[in-house]
Amino acid sequence: MWKKIFGTVKKETSTDLYDQIDQKRLPAHIAIIMDGNGRWAQNKGLMRTFGHKAGVDTLKKILKAAIKLNVKVLTVYAFSTENWKRPHKEVDFLMALFAEYLEREINEMDEDNVKIQFLGRLDELPTTLYGQIENAQTRTKSNTGVQFNVAVNYGSRDEITRSVKIIAQKVLDQKLPVTEITEEIIDDNLYTGGQVPVDLVIRTSGDLRMSNFLLWQAAYAEFWFTKVNWPDFTPDCFFQAVLDFQNRDRRFGGLSEK
Ligand code: IPE
Ligand code: IPE
Ligand code: MG
């Protein structure tokens, strides 16, 4: 039973994993907790920062895989509201890395018709990074390809609290009666307002937890865990997760149709 918790990536020789995916039953929204950069580096006797750098290369490959697959939404967890607890040096390195990544990748993402959006308390980020984020969002706003959400300074509880505050203000301003507060209104006021719910959550590096990521949006998501650290995660791992997703029996509280 325990062995089954972790996804195993089949080493295909004749058939490509991608070719086995049923295009008609794709998860519309895939969310990834990109974990294990530090451990990857430490296992190699390197500083943790090397792991973060390698992790950025993986992200580029996985975004390309999502584009190839044509998923509607890909959300990745890059920095949590809790990650400020890390040493200053590591936090500074990560912020600089995000800025460098955006600067380097924005042209190609735009060419690939990707619509990029950042989720989180963005105004608390370094000013230059915040400026780049605003530019990237504005520039790709009308793109119609993959919706690419990057969660930075993101916490799900914080996001839900923020949604509640926006709604409470509307009630105070007498624009919304309490009786009309619905799940849809709470959902609309999250950073992901208007987007489809999460179908599949992938977490790398062996930990089995949500770490305050998309708690509301992933209420009925399927989970796919792997012991592979993020820098070693490949498009094949990604395709395998989608294939395994397609073999799950999603009942949403009802009864199986099988
Ligand atoms: C994930 O890798 C990246 C961030 C949280 C920014 P970690 O840095 O958490 O790597 P581990 O989990 O310590 O190995
Ligand atoms: C979750 O990873 C956050 C990101 C991947 C950005 P963490 O490494 O911060 O999570 P914990 O501390 O192991 O729960
Ligand atoms: Mg971690």
Automatic annotation (TrEMBL):
Give the EC number.
2.5.1.-
Q: Which Pfam families match?
A: Prenyltransf
Q: Which residues form the active site?
A: 35, 83
Q: Which InterPro entries match?
A: UPP_synth-like (IPR001441), UPP_synth-like_CS (IPR018520), UPP_synth-like_sf (IPR036424)
* UniProt feature coiled coil, ranges: none
Supply the enzyme class, top level: transferase
Annotated GO CC locations: cytosol
Looking up SUPFAM superfamilies in the UniProt record yields: Undecaprenyl diphosphate synthase
Q: Which UniProt keywords apply?
A: Magnesium, Metal-binding, Transferase
Q: Could you say which residues bind Mg(2+) here?
A: 35, 222
Q: Which biological process annotations from GO are given for this protein?
A: polyprenol biosynthetic process
Q: Which residues bind substrate?
A: 36-40, 48, 52, 80-82, 84, 86, 203, 209-211
Q: Which Gene3D superfamilies match?
A: Decaprenyl diphosphate synthase-like (3.40.1180.10)
Q: In the record's cofactor note, how is the cofactor described as bound?
A: Binds 2 magnesium ions per subunit.
Instruction: Give the Gene Ontology MF terms in alphabetical order.
Output: ditrans,polycis-undecaprenyl-diphosphate synthase [(2E,6E)-farnesyl-diphosphate specific] activity; magnesium ion binding; manganese ion binding
Give the required cofactors: Mg(2+)
* Oligomer status and interactors: Homodimer.
HAMAP family hit by this protein = ISPT
What family name appears in the similarity comment? Belongs to the UPP synthase family.
- What is the protein's known function? Catalyzes the condensation of isopentenyl diphosphate (IPP) with allylic pyrophosphates generating different type of terpenoids.
Q: What is this protein called?
A: Isoprenyl transferase
Source organism of this protein record: Propionispira arboris
